[in-house]
Specification:
By secondary structure, the protein is an alpha+beta fold. It has a 5-stranded antiparallel beta sheet with strand order 4-3-7-6-5, sandwiched between helices. Strands 9-11-12-14-13 form a 5-stranded mixed beta sheet. The protein has a two-stranded antiparallel ribbon with strand order 1-2. A hairpin with a 2-residue loop joins β11 and β12. The chain folds into 4 domains: 82 residues; 134 residues, 2-Layer Sandwich (Beta-Lactamase), CATH 3.30.450; 100 residues, Signal transduction histidine kinase, dimerisation/phosphotransfer (DHp) domain (Helix Hairpins), CATH 1.10.287.130; 164 residues, Histidine kinase-like ATPase, C-terminal domain (Heat Shock Protein 90, 2-Layer Sandwich). α12 packs across α13.
């Protein structure tokens, strides 16, 4: 069975259009994620990466030059050739017994017959240090160099610019060499010959006048013991070998530089840019003067920067809420403190003018009462300002709230036998909540004290506990009822504001700061609950008393 293959020709126009689309997409991606030139973190990332790369590259280039294996191999080769030439000259060019001397003509003839590689030069010196034979002159090899045109300094500048990297690497390699090697670099050929005539053998790297390095070995010519001359064999290919090694490293350097640039770009895109956005938002929030500034939403990132963004967002929102609360609290405190201070100042101004003891005593009583009011205000203000800190320090645990309320009811009945009785009635078996005993105890003591203040002596304060549900979760609902005159409908929410107070007739003015219910709401909200007030009424609509309700999340069952 044959299969039909549908062959289609490639459309060159479609390929070009696809390539153009890909190029546009690539350029847009580069523009979008390219690091800003003013990004300090991006600069530090690039600098750190390239400094590390630069140290690696320079170290490789410098150490490749000073590898002792290369120089030692060259020295061993030259030493073997030099000893061979010295022995030949000692046998064939030495004349005179018992005091031998070097025959210059024979030395030149023997050297002309020997094979000397092109990159190697052999020099023969007599005992006085004068050149007897030169392999380059004998082989008609001359050194040539191209001179620049007269008056043309551009080529000199270009050549100097090209030699700058080489000179820098040469300087670094000089630092890495030992003191003996640096001393050998500064030694000239005449000093080397004089050392050999004195009975030494000299081998090492020497620098010529033009800066080129020469591997040189100088060996004495000794028929028996006396030195009659010196053979110096030099190699000029060390620089070319070093340059070849450097060129071999160039592809690896380029690849390393490309990888470093790509990693730096990635770090900049995924680290520097988001952090800079957060920093700019933080600066904007600082300069906003209290105006709310929304931090960038980085909750989609599943890394540390995403966590940092979420933390900064939540922190700024909490700070804004706290600033608003502090501003309102400061304004309320200033207003409440101003009233007794004004009264004290007025009484103090009138006091010197009082003409009799009765008026003076009355003014002193006013001052004493206002000072007491100030003391209570400051005490309650201090307590209110410490509520958040105390709630943060105390550990949340399982608390049997019904047992706590039962103990509070027994305590109030024992302490206030002549006043309205306090009764507790529970409709639940498990009255546990997740909370702190001391703050919640303060809440219910404030509510019971408030109910006792408004209840007549013939009435009673009833505390009840029952199950409830709030936000789809089980809760424990506590109600505290009194038999007082109730609360004006328009003030059912106002009574929870700071410094608001409304007392029954006959109670002492300024005896209460108006912070009790505000602190109670603050504590209940910190436990995830709510507190509110209503008036209890009969079927005819008559007010029977006030009811305060506290709804707290129930603790999970064991």
């Amino acid at each position: 069975m044959a299969l039909d293959t549908d062959t289609r020709k490639t459309d060159p126009g479609a390929m070009r259009r696809g390539l153009a689309v890909a190029l546009r997409w690539g350029r847009g991606l580069v523009r979008r994620f390219s690091p800003s030139a003013t990004s300090r973190l991006a600069q530090l990332i690039l600098l750190a990466n390239f400094v590390a790369l630069g140290v690696l590259v320079v170290g490789m280039l410098a150490l490749s030059e000073t590898r002792r294996g290369l120089v030692n191999a060259k020295l061993d080769s030259l030493r073997a050739q030099g000893e061979l030439i010295a022995n030949v000259l000692a046998e064939g060019a030495a004349v005179g017994i018992p005091t031998p001397a070097l025959n210059n003509a024979d030395a030149r003839a023997l050297l002309r017959q020997l094979y000397v590689p092109e990159e190697t030069r052999v020099l023969v010196f007599d005992k006085g240090g004068e050149i007897v034979a030169d392999s380059h002159l004998l082989a008609d090899v001359f050194e040539t160099s191209v001179l620049p045109p007269p008056g043309d300094d551009a080529s000199n500048l270009a050549e100097a610019a090209r030699n700058v990297p080489t000179r820098l690497l040469d300087g670094l390699s000089t630092i890495l060499t030992s003191s003996e090697e640096r001393a050998a670099l500064d030694r000239d050929l005449r000093e080397e010959v004089e050392q050999v005539i004195a009975g030494e053998r000299v081998a090492g790297v020497r620098r010529e006048i033009d800066g080129a390095r020469v591997v040189s070995v100088s060996i004495p010519i000794q028929p028996v013991r006396a030195v009659i001359g010196v053979v110096t064999i030099e190699s000029y290919d060390l620089d070319s070998l070093i340059e070849a090694e450097r060129r071999a490293l160039l592809p690896f350097i380029l690849i390393a530089a490309l990888v470093t640039a790509m990693s730096s770009l990635a770090l900049t895109v995924f680290i520097a840019r988001p952090i800079r956005r957060l920093a700019r938002a933080a600066d904007e929030a600082r300069r906003a003067g209290g105006r709310r500034v929304t931090m960038p939403n980085m909750s989609a990132r599943r890394d540390e920067i995403g966590e940092l963004g979420v933390s900064l967002y939540e922190m700024t929102e909490a700070l804004y809420d706290r600033l608003d609360a502090i501003e309102r609290f400061a304004a309320d405190v200033a207003h409440e403190l101003k009233n007794p201070l004004t009264s004290i100042r007025s009484a103090a101004e009138v006091l010197p003018k009082a003409k009799d003891d009765v008026r003076r005593d009355r003014l002193l009583a006013v001052i004493e009462a206002d000072v007491g009011r100030l003391d209570r205000l400051i005490t309650d203000i201090s307590r209110a300002s410490r509520v958040d800190a105390e709630l943060a320090r105390e550990d949340v645990g399982r608390l049997n709230l019904c047992a706590l309320l039962d103990e509070l009811a027994d305590t109030y009945r024992a302490a206030n036998e002549a006043g309205p009785p306090v009764r507790f009635e529970s409709q639940v078996r498990n009255g546990n909540v997740q909370g702190r005993e001391v703050p919640l105890g303060q809440v219910f003591r404030n509510l019971i004290d408030n109910a006792l203040t408004f209840s007549p002596d013939t009435g009673e304060v009833m505390i009840k506990a029952r199950r409830g549900h709030r936000n789809g979760k089980a809760s424990l609902v506590i109600t505290i009822d009194d038999n007082g005159p109730g609360i004006p409908e328009e003030n059912l929410e106002t009574i929870f504001e700071r410094f608001y107070t409304e007392r029954p007739k006959g109670s002492a003015f300024g005896a209460h700061s108006g912070l009790g219910l505000a602190i109670s709401r603050q504590i209940v909200k910190a436990h995830g609950g709510q507190i509110y007030a209503i008036n209890r009424k009969d079927k005819s609509g008559n007010v029977l008393g006030a009811r305060f309700t506290v709804d707290l999340p129930a603790a999970p069952a064991d």
